[in-house]
UniProtKB/TrEMBL annotation:
It comes from Piliocolobus tephrosceles. It holds the Pfam family Resistin. Belongs to the resistin/FIZZ family. One of its GO terms (cellular component) is extracellular space. This is Resistin-like beta. PANTHER family: RESISTIN, RESISTIN-LIKE BETA. InterPro entries: RELM, Resistin-like_sf. Coiled coil: none annotated. The keyword Membrane does not apply. Keywords: Disulfide bond, Hormone, Secreted, Signal. GO terms for molecular function: hormone activity. Its main location: secreted.
């Protein structure tokens, strides 16, 4: 490394000391203003049709509980403290424990 490189390495920290501390704050405020300007220019057009999530629970005896037509399973619950279940075909809860007295499916659709 030559002498000019060493001088440059010493000069850079000294220049940082000369720059006033308010420069960072002014840079932050400029960036905040630019971000706000860009966000204000973005078009926001909410959907004219708002949809509502409609849900119901279906409880059945045994290991299976199925949702009504047009609805989708969003969760399942099983009797006897069984926490092992899966969703079959998107519409049926299947509790996987060997002995099961009831199964509940939480079923939803967008209305």
């Amino acid at each position: 490394m030559g002498p000019s490189s060493c001088h440059l390495l010493i000069l850079i920290p000294l220049l940082q000391l000369i720059v006033p501390g308010s420069t960072q704050c002014s840079l932050d405020s400029v960036m905040n203003k630019k971000i706000k300007d860009v966000l204000n220019r973005l078009e926001y057009s909410p959907s004219p049709v708002s949809k509502k999530l409609s849900c119901t629970s279906v409880k059945s005896q045994g290991r299976l509980a199925s949702c009504p037509a047009g609805m989708t399973v969003t969760g399942c619950a099983c009797g006897y403290g069984c926490g092992s279940w899966d969703v079959q075909g998107g519409t049926t809860c299947h509790c996987q424990c060997s002995v099961m007295d009831w199964t509940t499916a939480r079923c939803c659709y967008l209305a």
